[in-house]
Amino acid sequence: MKPVDFHSSQRGFTYMIALFLVAILSVTIVAALEKTITKERRDKEAQLLYVGQAYQTAIMRYYQNSPGTAKSYPPDLQSLLQDSRTTTLQRYLRRPYFDPMTGSASWGVVPAEGGGIMGVYSLSTQQPIKTGGFPDNLANLTGAQTYQQWQFNYVPTH
Predict the structure, then answer these.
(1) Maximum Cα interatomic distance, the chain, rounded to a whole number of Å
(2) Does 96 map to a domain?
C-alpha cells in the first residue's frame, strides 16, 4: 500500500481557494468601478444642469435688458460675457463654461427665430442617466435620448 501524501492534496485545495479568492476580488473590483463611473457621470450631469441653467439665465437677462422696446437675443455666446449695447457694461456670465460632458468649451447653440442664440446644448451623444424628475423650467429634458437633446433655451412669456 502506498502512503498518502497529504502535502500534494493540500496544494490542490490551496490552489482552488486562491482561484476562488481572485474571482471574488475581481467581481468586487468591477462592481466598485461601475459604481464609481456611474457616480462620476451623475456628477457631470449635475454640472451640466447647473451650467446649462446659467447659460439659460444669462440669455434671459440679455434678452430682458435689451435697450428700447425691441428685444433681441445675444448674437453669440461671447456677448453674454460683455454686453456693450448700453453705456454701462453688463456681464451676464463671469466666464465661458466648459461642457462637463465633453470637457470642451464648444457648445451647440439653438438659433432664435429672429436671429441670435436662444439656448445651448451639450455636444455629447452619450445617453443620459437622468431621464425624468426635472424641475418645471427644464421639463423639456424629460425622456431625452442623448445629452444633445438637453437644450437650455430661453423662450420669453408674453
Answers:
(1) 109
(2) yes
